Amino acid sequence: MAAFAVIEMRTRNPMFRLPLFRICAFAFGTISTFLAAVARGGLMFILIIWLQGIWLPQHGYNFEQTPLWAGIYMLPLTFGMLAAGPLSGYLSDHFGARPFASGGMIGTAISFLILLMLPTNFPFAVFALALALSGTSMGMFASPNRAAVMNSLPRAHRGAGGGMNQTFQNSAQVLSIGVFFTLMIAGLSSTLPETMRNGLVAHGVPAAVAGHAAQLPPVSILFAAFLGYNPVQHILGPQVLSALSASNRALVTGRSFFPQLIGGPFQSGLHEAFLFAVIACLVAAATSLMRGGRFHYTNEEDAYVPQQMMAGQGEESWPQAARSPVDE
Prior knowledge:
The chain is about 75% helix and about 0% strand. It has helices spanning about 1-10, 25-40, 45-60, 65-75, 75-95, 100-115, 125-150, 160-200, 205-215, 220-225, 230-240, 245-250, 255-290, 305-310, 320-325, and strands at about 295, 325. The chain has a two-stranded antiparallel sheet with strand order 1-2.
């Protein structure tokens, strides 16, 4: 990354035009984009695993059905984004991006706090309300923030600046998945092995087999549920299951055993992940507030050579409007 920054500052036609970060509205808008994507990128996977591995089986759905129904039960999030995105973009043209972008991040943090307080076997009405609030808040942030970032740039640099902003968002989403799963697995690893071992032994699984299953990486258990497999059936295999009594076999492969087994450890991991998301959203809201008022690049005489900004010349060689966008 250090080498990339040095090369980009010296090359004649850089991919990243780093001097654009001297524009306050662009810099803080891009940082807000990054933090917002970090807060929500991995969260979608966590919510889907929560539905598929715990909630849906406890409410009568077979593990094979859960991928489809998890998507259906996540629709309040989509509806919130669809409703808020265009409306907030329209309103931000008249009232500025800052109240919508910062308010959206605060609303997202509140939605994560609601999810943090829910039990693993939650009432769906409250869960749907939290999803709708999260989607609405994300929609409030995304469109105004992107418009403010683009409006802050000289016309000749809007393509590069938009690409830089999108790169920060995509990179943050990838990073977010790693962060959320690390926090989730760290929470599971502290309590899941013992809970798994004791639960399997109590229902006739040999201690050696139960101990081996308990030592498997938690991510394998999570992704078995994510892919629509019965996690216990996937872990034990047909040979071990065939040796159990009919009643124990039906119980450990039923819809309730695994969700009840993993519920406590999973909630421990959820708390860590949601707390991280809340902090990231609040920092994003504060960063968005620091962007200033309604910035628009007003000097449309973009005939100057863009390489002036990139070839190591001093800031005094830049057009004045590129350094100080007009605060309306």
